[in-house]
Specification:
By secondary structure, this protein is of the alpha/beta class. 21% of the residues lie in helices and 27% in strands. The strands form 2 sheets. It has a 5-stranded mixed sheet with strand order 5-4-8-6-7. The chain has a 3-stranded antiparallel sheet with strand order 1-2-3. The radius of gyration is 13 Å and the shape is globular. The termini are close together.
Length: 124
């Protein structure tokens, strides 16, 4: 799926997703990724069942101040286990779950508004 939207200068923008890949700011990533305003990196998560508190360590380390993390759960939306959601909230990370396509589109919309957002995206 191709996406079009403009990001502020120096911000990561999700351009497409499909076939287990993401194109973010003209770089193609195979598999799941975490996209932050300034960087994108591979993420070892392949399914919601894989998620742990440690899965979100790059976003809870204190180096990044975020309003929200959008969790792209794959082809369909699912919810984080309540204990994990609570532990993340205690670390200062609010996570909103949605399907991966919706997470990509929402990330781009929020980043175009210069919001402090990240997307943790499970590849389709």
């Amino acid at each position: 799926m191709e996406l079009t939207r403009q990001a502020p200068q120096g911000r990561e923008l999700i351009q497409s997703y499909a076939g287990g890949k993401f194109r973010v700011s003209d770089v193609i990533y195979q598999g799941s990724v975490i996209v932050t305003p300034k960087a994108t990196f591979a993420w070892s998560v392949t399914a919601l069942a894989d998620l742990t508190l440690e899965s979100f360590a790059p976003l809870t380390s204190g180096d990044i101040k975020l309003d929200v993390c959008l969790l792209g759960c794959g082809a369909k939306m699912d919810r984080l286990p309540p204990d994990l959601r609570k532990a993340l909230k205690e670390k200062g990370l609010t996570v909103e779950s949605m399907d991966t396509g919706a997470a990509c589109r929402t990330y781009n919309m929020l980043i175009s508004e210069n919001r402090a957002v990240a997307a943790a995206l499970i590849a389709l």
